[in-house]
Amino acid sequence: MKTYAIAAIPGDGIGQEVVPAGERVLQALAATEGGFAFDFEHFGWGGDWYRQHGVMMPADGLEALRGKDAILFGSAGDPKIPDHITLWGLRLKICQGFDQYANVRPTRILPGIDSPLKRCKPEDLNWVIVRENSEGEYAGVGGRAHQGHPIEVATDVSIMTRTGVERIIRYAFKLAQSRPRKQLSVVTKSNAQRHAMVMWDEIAAEVARDFPDVHWDKELVDAMTARMVNKPATLDTIVATNLHADILSDLAAALAGSLGIAPTGNIDPERRYPSMFEPIHGSAFDIMGQGLANPIGTFWSCVMLLEHLGELAAAARLMHAIEAVTAQPALHTRDLGGQATTADVTQAVCHALKASQD
Ligand code: ATP
């Protein structure tokens, strides 16, 4: 029997509630599936680690993760530690250290979930946003000088390389090609940013020649926000820069019902390193420790993890169990207008898995 080595990094805030819930569901799935098992190793990195050690993760942390089949991540963020330290010290260290250059964010309106888009039928919103995850606005290039003086200067330089842009656009075309509608929207801001964004448009046109069966269009990022709200059914696969896609996918998650539902995968498509799966929400300190966190985003991330491992039948079974649970308003957490707890939802998904086995 195959045993998958999984690193669990709950991180901060509600990450410490939803990652153990994800682990429970994966173990329940493996128990009912039979063909594989999971061996979890837990890493207590994040804000508390920072208070004890002065860093978010140890210097040799990547080495500890390197041999894993996948990583299940919660969130990084702490009200007492500046956001750029928590983000760069843990999540980005792993994403960039393992060159997980494709950040993949599926969005659908799951059964039983209300979208704030009143005219949108559930089948009208079925998107995958592909976020460039290794460079661009998150390249980390820039600096500050003369801090606190009137002549203070600060720069964040967005770096776009031909290699980086081409590989993410190619990934997005391939993904679009694998989906029934075979449709891709390439998002830029090439009217205002007339160097790197123009290069994106040019590279998209070049790569498109290798995918003659994929219909593709270009959209400016500001126009894309309006199109997502007004004409959701015209979209399928979307590719955008690191920052643009970050913003668009929060909007997408809200349009699909709640930030608490949305999953993401930080993928190394070449499989040189482990890929990392996490809910898109942050540490949500306002609700931590109260059992209010919606674990569905983590469970859906577990579905992506299983797909990445090639366990497609098990992934489909878990997605089915998730949908059976979201379909019941009595099992909605507070972010969805319900009163169920993290534990209630977790237990219900485990039951649904067991029921689907019988
Ligand atoms: P960070 O700085 O780590 O990104 P944040 O608190 O600024 O964290 P989010 O964690 O994304 O941002 O939370 C935004 C809002 O959405 C909060 O009010 C939070 O309570 C709510 N929220 C986010 N995730 C969930 C969830 N899984 N279940 C319920 N509510 C959630």
Task: Describe the model.
It is a single chain. This protein has 358 residues and is α/β, with parallel strands linked by helices. It is 41% helix and 22% strand. The protein has helices spanning 15-33, 47-53, 61-66, 83-97, 162-178, 196-208, 221-230, 242-255, 296-309, 312-326, 342-357; strands spanning 2-11, 36-42, 70-75, 102-108, 126-132, 136-145, 153-159, 183-188, 215-220, 237-240, 263-267, 275-279. Helix 1 runs parallel beside helix 11 (342-357), helix 5 (162-178) packs across helix 6 and helix 7 packs parallel to helix 8. The protein is globular. The chain starts with a strand and ends with a helix.
Judged by helices, strands and strand pairing, the structural class is alpha/beta
CATH topology-level fold name of the largest domain: Isopropylmalate Dehydrogenase
The rounded Rg comes to 20 Å
Largest sheet: 10 strands, mixed
Which ligands, by name, code or SMILES, are bound? adenosine-5'-triphosphate
- Proportion in β-strands: 15-25%
Terminal residue distance: 21 Å
Q: Quickly count the domains.
A: 2
How would the global form be characterised?
globular
Number of helices: 11
| Weakly predicted, low-confidence segments | none
The beta-strand count equals 12
Q: Major sheet: order of its strands?
A: 2-1-3-12-11-4-5-10-8-9
In which range does the helix fraction lie? 40-55%
- H-E order: EHEHHEHEEEEHEHEHEHEEHHH
CATH homologous superfamily descriptor of the largest domain: Isopropylmalate Dehydrogenase
